[in-house]
Amino acid sequence: MSYEQGAGVPHFALRLAYDGSDFAGWWRQPGLRCVASDIDQAGTAIGEPDLQCTGIARTDRGVHAREQIARVSCQRPWTTEHLCRALNHHLATDCRCLSAARVTDDWDIRASCRSKTYTYACDCSPWGDPFARRWAWRPPTGGDWQGLQNAAKILVGKHDFRCFIRRGEYRHDTVCTLQDITWTREGNIWRCGIQGDRFIYRLARSLVGCMWSAARDPTQLAHINEALEGGAPHPATMQQAPAHGLCLEKVELHQPLQWSA
Predict the structure, then answer these.
(1) Spatial contact of 48 and 86, defined as CB atoms under 8 Å apart
(2) Does residue 135 share a domain with residue 241?
(3) pTM of structure
(4) What domain range is 73 assigned to?
(5) Domain boundary among 90, 111, 132
(6) What pLDDT score does 3 carry?
């Protein structure tokens, strides 16, 4: 039996993972393959043509996710296990529904988010790793490891990030709190983890570009600090790493859900 008898018409949160290489981003765009539209199509295939799929983050073209959370509304009372199985049967292999949880009618997916953690991978091998090219950026020139650490220390905390605004930003409130920025090395892959309560448009990629600017030129550190305090953009805050190195790694909710697959 695929449905919960007498359970009413449910709403669900979905935990999704996807390789963003062949997607034009999360949100629906006419004529382009997007993650939300793939979920919509899978819903139609299982008799749920109006899922109204909404994501907790709108990842850009080429950005990956190990844990994206989406909200859907169903017409039939599926069990979480059967809903995951049915969706995965119709999704391509570069997008998976990892688990699902029942949520209330008034569950607000954006307001439920406590923090998001992104990781950004940089390929610092001498000639470039062909097996990392779809998920790691190869910076054009070498950078100083300590310079990355120094820049990260400046950026952590609560700041008004209006000096990082990019075209397409719609928010008036540009204050974000970054709880942690940590760089780690795994062989030739240098990886940055960024945890924050919220992110303005393309902030994670802009932060990585900014930190690499400081890693190449330590004098940029003072300019980054001035830009954060004064709000005026500086060339260091206008740098932006490409999308394919970025991954939405983890989402923390204010109230944990009961996930099952």
Answers:
(1) no
(2) yes
(3) 0.93
(4) 11-111
(5) 111
(6) 43
